[in-house]
Amino acid sequence: IKMLGHLILIRLTHVAPIALLEHLDPLVEPLRASVGSTAKEGAVKQDVDKNEELIRSSLRAVVAISRLPN
């Protein structure tokens, strides 16, 4: 579900960049938490891979937002 939200954010950077920038403050902390998430100690490979994909998805959303003018 989080990765779908990231895809929606990326799409919004193209469709409605001004509206996204106006409401960006509530999105910062969840993105920060996603980027800083770590897999639990002793997690299986599948869980580690899922966590890494979540981090990549979060970073793609951050990059898309950072490319917006102002």
* Series of secondary-structure elements, N-terminal to C-terminal: HHHH
From the spread of the alpha carbons, the general shape counts as elongated
Low-confidence stretches: none
How much of the residues is beta strand, in percent? Answer: under 5%
| SSE class | mainly alpha
* Mean pLDDT score: 93
Largest sheet, strands/sense/barrel: none
- Rg from Cα: 13 Å
**Separate helix tally:** 4
Percent helix among the residues?
over 70%
For the termini, the CA-CA separation is: 28 Å
The overall strand count is: 0
Describe the structure in brief:
The protein is mainly alpha-helical. The chain is 76% helix and 0% strand.
Descriptive keywords:
70 residues, mainly alpha
Question: Topology of this protein?
Answer:
Layout: H1 2-15, H2 17-22, H3 25-35, H4 45-66
Helix pairs in contact: 1-4, 3-4
Structure overview:
This protein has 70 residues and is an all-alpha fold. The chain has helices at residues 2-15, 17-22, 25-35, 45-66. Helix 1 (2-15) runs parallel beside helix 4 (45-66).
